[in-house]
Specification:
about 25% helix, five-stranded mixed beta sheet, about 30% strand, nine-stranded mixed beta sheet, alpha+beta
Length: about 300
């Protein structure tokens, strides 16, 4: 059996109110595509590949090198932004080796872009302060992973991206790194359809497919797995909201542990404490009485 695409598509909604977004998506941790927001940014229809090359091309930026889709073992080296755009436009991407401009803080590398983004006030009720990052890619795969510190919105300024999303409930099939690993939010798979001989359970996972188009925004809730395939050149920002009280939302791979300890065992443990203390007290005085009698 191959992976199972969910019958219900992820909704596309037009610029919801803060209350509507909170009640129907953020509070429910439900992905949604939002239209009518990014296409109103000053940056939209301005921040194209040619604009980057002509107006910000002299900036030195770190470029990630990905071999065989393995984002967990990447390297970074500096390159002029204009040289990177030329590289993408020339079609020199190799089959196994991909270059990717990813995870660059907007407020550090593209301060001028930050002034042309309008982040909606959707997250203040549940999430922390936002941080935005810049991405420019072509013909590369972003390894399956989830965000463990909070929710995110992927905002398409130019081109489009393909997303495959898996609910947290599918974690058991996705070959997650161990909870104690630095890569605990990553899957060990390195392609959209992994080798069934190496990852036989993966095909059981249910998923959603999304094509995010220029001017749209994809809300990705905390702990939702997603892999991304870039084809033509695209430009996007991703804004993350940190969540301080992570212990209230145990991550995938730990939820069964939390459930067992705090839902099943903890109430019984609390009830047993007085009884255990009383038993220990009784044993203590019984021992002392026996010792006293022997001495007499």
């Amino acid at each position: 059996n191959r992976n199972k695409k969910m019958a219900i598509e992820i909704e596309r909604i037009e610029a919801p109110s803060v209350d509507d977004f909170y009640e129907n998506y953020l509070a429910l941790e439900k992905p949604v595509i939002i239209t009518g927001v990014v296409n109103k940014w000053p940056a939209f229809n301005k921040w194209t590949a040619d604009y980057l090359k002509n107006n910000t091309g002299d900036r030195l930026v770190p470029i990630t090198t990905i071999i065989d889709g393995d984002y967990c073992n990447t390297t970074r080296s500096d390159m002029k932004l204009s040289e990177y755009i030329d590289y993408l436009q020339s079609g020199r991407q190799e089959a196994r080796k991909k270059l990717y401009l990813s995870e660059l803080p907007v407020n550090k590398y593209f301060k001028d872009l930050e002034q042309e983004m309008i982040i909606p006030d959707y997250f203040n009720r549940k999430e922390g302060s936002p941080k935005s990052f810049f991405y420019v890619g072509k013909d590369n795969f972003s390894q399956l992973h989830f965000h463990e510190h909070g929710s995110a919105v992927n905002c398409m300024l130019y081109g489009e991206k393909f997303f495959r999303l898996y609910p947290p409930s599918e974690t058991k099939y996705l070959y997650k790194y161990p909870w104690y690993s630095k890569l605990r939010n990553m899957s060990r798979t390195t392609s959209l359809i992994p080798d069934p001989n190496e990852f036989p359970e993966f095909r059981k996972a249910k998923y959603y497919d999304v094509v995010l188009k220029a001017g749209e925004m994809l809300f990705i809730p905390i702990y939702w797995w997603h892999a991304i395939q870039n084809h033509a050149i695209n430009i996007a920002t991703v804004t993350f909201w940190g969540r301080d009280s992570w212990y209230r939302y145990p991550p995938p791979g730990m939820r069964l542990v939390f459930y067992y300890i705090f839902i099943q065992e903890f109430p019984a443990l609390l009830k047993s404490i007085p009884e255990r203390i009383q038993n220990r007290v009784n044993k203590f005085f019984s021992a002392r009485n026996r010792t006293g009698k022997n001495r007499i």
